[in-house]
Amino acid sequence: MSALMLIPRNVCIAILVAYRAIVSPLYGDVCRYYPSCSSYTLQAIQQHGAVRGIWMGARRIVRCHPWAAGGVDDIPVPRRAMTLTRFGFVTGAA
């Protein structure tokens, strides 16, 4: 996979990592699901790409409301595995 095609995905990852480091600690542990919505979206973007990952994260956020049962909600297994750096950025196919 071309490094140029990974730029949008890695930009989204950088934004979510910053959100999780700066904003998320202010809210504390309030998510009804495991993993949290931001972690779920981060994993979805890492494994499925920017467009599909954002779509999956948005659907997850819509499902998260006061009347939701919550619980464990893992992302679907991707069609092909991606290699991640220690900071979570995508480098290409495994």
Automatic annotation (TrEMBL):
UniProt subcellular location: Cell membrane
Keyword terms of this UniProt record: Cell membrane, Membrane
Database matches in InterPro entries: Membr_insert_effic_factor_YidD (IPR002696)
Entry GO terms, CC: plasma membrane
Membrane topology according to the record: Peripheral membrane protein
UniProt-listed Pfam families: YidD
Keyword Acetylation annotated: no
Function: Could be involved in insertion of integral membrane proteins into the membrane.
HAMAP family: UPF0161_YidD (MF_00386)
Name listed for the protein in its UniProt record: Putative membrane protein insertion efficiency factor
Species per Swiss-Prot/TrEMBL record: Agrococcus jejuensis
Upper taxonomic lineage: Bacteria, Bacillati, Actinomycetota, Actinomycetes, Micrococcales
